[in-house]
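P.,

For your records, the input lines for the assembly:
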Amino acid sequence: MSDNTFGKYLRLTTWGESHGLAIGGVVDGCPPGLTLNEELIQPFLDARRPGSSKHVTQRKEPDQVQILSGVFEGLTTGHPISLLIENQDAKSKDYSEIANSYRPGHADYTYDGKYGFRDYRGGGRSSARETAIRVAGGAIARQILGDQISLGAALVQIGNMPVDRSNWDWAEVKKNDLFCPCAKTAIKWEEYLHKTRKSGNSVGAIVEIIASGLPIGWGAPVYGKLDAMIAGAIMSIPAAKGVEIGAGFAAAAMTGTEHADEMVLKNNKPAFLSNNNGGVLGGISSGQDIIVRMAVKPTSSILTPRRSITRDGNEINLSTKGRHDPCVGIRAVPVAEAMLALVLADAKLQHRAQTGRDGAAWDK
Amino acid sequence: MSDNTFGKYLRLTTWGESHGLAIGGVVDGCPPGLTLNEELIQPFLDARRPGSSKHVTQRKEPDQVQILSGVFEGLTTGHPISLLIENQDAKSKDYSEIANSYRPGHADYTYDGKYGFRDYRGGGRSSARETAIRVAGGAIARQILGDQISLGAALVQIGNMPVDRSNWDWAEVKKNDLFCPCAKTAIKWEEYLHKTRKSGNSVGAIVEIIASGLPIGWGAPVYGKLDAMIAGAIMSIPAAKGVEIGAGFAAAAMTGTEHADEMVLKNNKPAFLSNNNGGVLGGISSGQDIIVRMAVKPTSSILTPRRSITRDGNEINLSTKGRHDPCVGIRAVPVAEAMLALVLADAKLQHRAQTGRDGAAWDK
Amino acid sequence: MSDNTFGKYLRLTTWGESHGLAIGGVVDGCPPGLTLNEELIQPFLDARRPGSSKHVTQRKEPDQVQILSGVFEGLTTGHPISLLIENQDAKSKDYSEIANSYRPGHADYTYDGKYGFRDYRGGGRSSARETAIRVAGGAIARQILGDQISLGAALVQIGNMPVDRSNWDWAEVKKNDLFCPCAKTAIKWEEYLHKTRKSGNSVGAIVEIIASGLPIGWGAPVYGKLDAMIAGAIMSIPAAKGVEIGAGFAAAAMTGTEHADEMVLKNNKPAFLSNNNGGVLGGISSGQDIIVRMAVKPTSSILTPRRSITRDGNEINLSTKGRHDPCVGIRAVPVAEAMLALVLADAKLQHRAQTGRDGAAWDK
Amino acid sequence: MSDNTFGKYLRLTTWGESHGLAIGGVVDGCPPGLTLNEELIQPFLDARRPGSSKHVTQRKEPDQVQILSGVFEGLTTGHPISLLIENQDAKSKDYSEIANSYRPGHADYTYDGKYGFRDYRGGGRSSARETAIRVAGGAIARQILGDQISLGAALVQIGNMPVDRSNWDWAEVKKNDLFCPCAKTAIKWEEYLHKTRKSGNSVGAIVEIIASGLPIGWGAPVYGKLDAMIAGAIMSIPAAKGVEIGAGFAAAAMTGTEHADEMVLKNNKPAFLSNNNGGVLGGISSGQDIIVRMAVKPTSSILTPRRSITRDGNEINLSTKGRHDPCVGIRAVPVAEAMLALVLADAKLQHRAQTGRDGAAWDK
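Structure tokens returned:
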């Protein structure tokens, strides 16, 4: 990972600001011969799109992706795939107040500190708008992973209300506006979000991402561990403040007899009796589901006035109007799923480079 | 991060197995003219050293580091610094049982799956023995960071017993064998660990790492975020299962009014009223303390027999004898601190490359 | 250098095919606060532009570059700079013959071998059209280098006719269509090229690139040598078959007394009596002019029929019609200059990262 | 390539100075299961070893390589391979003269400029002693390439005396001390070198390196071109001043009808009628022999006094005594061969990562 490039074997480089002409990205290292077109990418972008429900920002962006290179007659050529999405609803307005003040919890202060000035329109490069291209890149990563590997993500907590896991239904995730896998919980969350927004506030959330169907052997030891790559990828999502694998932080309170996933033979094949390690052992995929959770902080942009300072050194009370998500964790769901897809596709290519195989030694 | 190399601008490449002749590493990209010698590194290694108390593995290793290159007349030359530590207490014994069985929670099964076979002596490359070189690398990173930046790490939870934060004393961390910042908590933990070990079990833990004195501006947006780098670095530590920054997972249950750190002027200088963001805003250091927590799973190697399978496809009950840490989180404390030092030194060099400055634009 | 990305500290990633909708690139790692706009880039693109004289391809492309990100109020922000050039004269014609045959000296055969198929329209990704973005990237690199460093490039040989060096005039390079630093030689070359084109043939050339004003200290030892970086960069230009530094291949026939550049004091400052090393000693800039030469092969696309084979395994006689440069070395001149600019900007950032300085230790 | 690390998919990181305790390196990314031991590496080191004939430096180094990690029971494990060679004949002597003066043609002046000071003993990091580890790394690269690919290198010119190519005999290369493929030329060269050394002088040379048996498809377009990688690798060898592929600089004087390698069918398989492109088309291997030539400058360390300056600003006449090669091109032969092996192994892994194949699409 190098500033604006993600991945080593499969590389996604993104560019663009919230209120520029467009945002975009380049996917390099993609295998040739894979089916790819805009229609395969668009559904993932639609899931992340702003303005799709009252629980997310009301900025209206069709987020229509264009593929400008790297595809010929419907197939990837092995050359860089250029992706472009126009910014259509970038409001031209008076930015003088934002330009001179530091919004609490935002990158305004640190960008000025690092670069000496900043593109303040809509947060510029620090805007979560950049994540649209991650989602597009994730759709390409899925084509590399193939049908054998399935990915899913859901919101599992809003505020202090966890989802009812006994009622988990993946189909439900696509039915409600909150990526909630339990219909009843979704209703409770909607009410709570409504109140939160009305009161000029916002709230945090937890996202869970799961990948199934991995072979044994993806990832690498030491610094290239699959879980280390995942942690870096997930924490690079705007507003992410924590990431855990398998039992995660709960592992701290567990004993060795509880945590270590025992193995048995099922139908003469190796099987695990639990998955506290979240599908990764020693940094390498074990064939079990990859289980990741991400903590997302509450949106920093809120109507309720907060104390802050201006660029020229005065104290102010700042109320952020604009169009903002009351719970930025919602739209982080498809983004987190895309980042996991990108990590796994990268790991697949690493494994191929070093071993010449797609899967385990014994699957050769 | 590329398999066995950590960092982009400052790069640490490590090598070696638990029971080979030696372990070592190479630090590349180090600025010239810094004071460096073995005596500056050794204290950090001593803190991580096995056999130093009854709460850690009884393997006896002096862990004397040798600098083989990159230093001339006591100063770094700007050329690669080669570090070497001999393995002295690698027991030559009968490994046939380990060779043929997969220890639950270990990399045995996944290494065989990825590579087709493995160096099973003491876990080979998957052994936490590799982390000694991380600690040595971290000591070099500290020289790059200079005196202005201070780092500290402590154990803040063992099992379900958190430290008494009202009684936090950094001096205490160096006094007890558990890196515990509260003397009373340390006694409770020692008793619990004693029982745990006696019962052939192990337990998880949480480590907290803090860095103070950073300028505003280190880190980069998007994929090079300082917190993303930290998350990847921390999760690459053996047995790590979770990482969080600032309020971390607790942020999920917070509202925007609670979480967003308000700013004021103190003595005419910008100041924050809280630090829920853990010293990072938009991926870039804000000048506040960097606060990181890592969840460490319980040692998988326990005396209590666990179900597992053999390489040739039979079910077994496996009791791991050997010399193992009952709480691997203890020795992870200096390792986590070293990883944070390496990330920060890398970020310092990134900032210099792009801006030509060590600190904030207004400190020029 | 990683497939479609050039550079480590300053990174240019390019994308696009000869006959796609557009070509483009992303410059990442650029320092903030530099003046940048399309007008600063365009003159360099105009120098490389096709259709500008009868000696180059007659494809008409205005090559108007658009900056889509990374610049705010006329200054670079430190964020990725997205560059885009539309393809306007990509002829829609019958490609069936090209699609099925391998043009000698081209990438047709090897692309099919590597990827299984190829975008055959105008050579797809293998077309020198990609070099327009290198030229745009080079213009940005110049802004990073600043006014102190000046770059120039010229054609010094066409066929077996070297330029008359005794008559070298940098101003002349911009006056004729051949980047020739001698007006008389230019006339001879023009006549020769006219004949060559008429006879359905093409010819090779040698380009010389010079950079002045470098401080002492850019570059790095071993694999990061400044001359190694230059060699890789130059050889990545389409049709390049050789690269040399300073005396280059002539050094093979020299003795140590002739070659080693002696040093003296001039006005109390270190000075060299010759520059056989081309401004690089031990991989690091010596403050002398960087002198590089590149051999360019004759255009492979010629009217004269050549023997070749088809994709489906038949022998053919192939005459390449289309619009092609009779001497591809001409338009390689601004491309080579751009690549040297990119290498030097990368080296400047490397030097800053490691030493915290822009120049020599004694200039601090 | 990143300062002291070579390669992207297969990475060699080297360390060590001429007069330190040892030199060494780490090979990362190596496929598992390959046969490897010291005996496989040693013959290549012996070919490069100093003191092996009167035509090379008289420093006596056994150059016995030790493998410290990454190999288990005679096979590579897929983990980093640590290589170490002790420095045994590093003379402890009075370096005060060297410490204070800048040897013409050496890195003394530029190292001081970049780093502020230098390890002056035997040239420190700038010494060609580092190339021993390249040769060891090249031996590992050969194991990755396998038996199908063969590499050879020879000296083809010393001073202005080219080898008699009509009399080329690969077997002869191993028989004489000069890696000369013609017995008669070898005798002429030996006489000339004897005179050159006696007169306190040195001379340049040209090395040719050839690789056979490559599949079609290794390499990548644009910046990852196989010939660009080779050019960077070769130019990183100490004293290299030029590199060319196939016809190289001679291509400048050729026409398109002469240069473009025509294709025919031989035994129903694609075949080329010439190899002016040196086995690379569009940056990707064509299946023909890879042909590379490197220009090596005359040794800068000569007995004949040369003008130079001291660190503290005085003019001097410098005669370099010590133990030096009269023609450093000789020992560059095995080094160049090793670098080509490293590039090709890297390209093999790149090709596998992206395509999942070792060879051409039609060889699947």
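Two observations worth noting. DSSP finds nine helices and 18 strands in chain C. The longest helix of chain C spans residues 332-355.

Regards
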